[in-house]
C-alpha cells in the first residue's frame, strides 16, 4: 500500500527553526491532501497545516505566520518549515496523506499516517 516516513525532528531552542520532511512511497497513483498533525502529551492530536494537490494551504491559528507547508509532487514529499519555535510547539508531529494507489489493473483509495517524529522546543 502506501507508507509515509517522517524525518527532521529534534531538540531546538525557543526561537529556533526545524524542517520536517515526509516521503510517501508505494504504488501511488495520486496524492490528494497532505498534512501535518501534532500531539502533545495529554492532549488530542490537532491539525497543524495541510496542503492540497493544487497547492492550497490551511494552517492552525497557533502556527500561522511561523510555519510553512510545501510539497514536491515529483518526489511525493511534503515539508513543514517551522520558524520562531515556542515551547508550546513541543509534540510528536505526524504526517498524513490521502489519495489512490494501485496499477493499471486496479485502483483503490488510501489514507495513511506516518510513525511520527518528536519535536522538542526547550532551552
Q: Tell me, rounded to a whole number, the average pLDDT.
A: 96
Uncertain parts: none
| Rg result | 15 Å
Broad structural category: mainly beta
**Main sheet, how many strands, which sense, barrel?**
7 strands, mixed
Order of helices and strands: EEEEEEEEEEE
Distance between the termini: 40 Å
What is the overall number of helices? Answer: 0
Strand residues, percent:
over 45%
For the secondary structure, the number of strands is 11
> Helical residue percent?
under 10%
Chain-wise SSE layout:
Elements lengths: L1 E6 L2 E3 L5 E9 L1 E12 L6 E6 L5 E3 L7 E6 L4 E6 L8 E12 L4 E7 L3 E5 L2
Parallel strand pairs: 2-11
Antiparallel strand pairs: 1-3, 3-8, 4-5, 4-9, 5-6, 7-8, 9-10, 9-11
Q: Would you write up a description of this structure?
A:
The chain is built from no helices and eleven strands. The protein has strands at 2-7, 10-12, 18-26, 28-39, 46-51, 57-59, 67-72, 77-82, 91-102, 107-113, 117-121. Strands 2, 4, 5, 6, 9, 10 and 11 form a seven-stranded mixed sheet that branches. Strands 1-3-8-7 form a four-stranded antiparallel sheet, with no helix packed on it. A hairpin with a 4-residue loop joins strand 7 and strand 8. The protein is elongated, with a radius of gyration of 15 Å. 28% of the residues are buried. The mean pLDDT is 96.
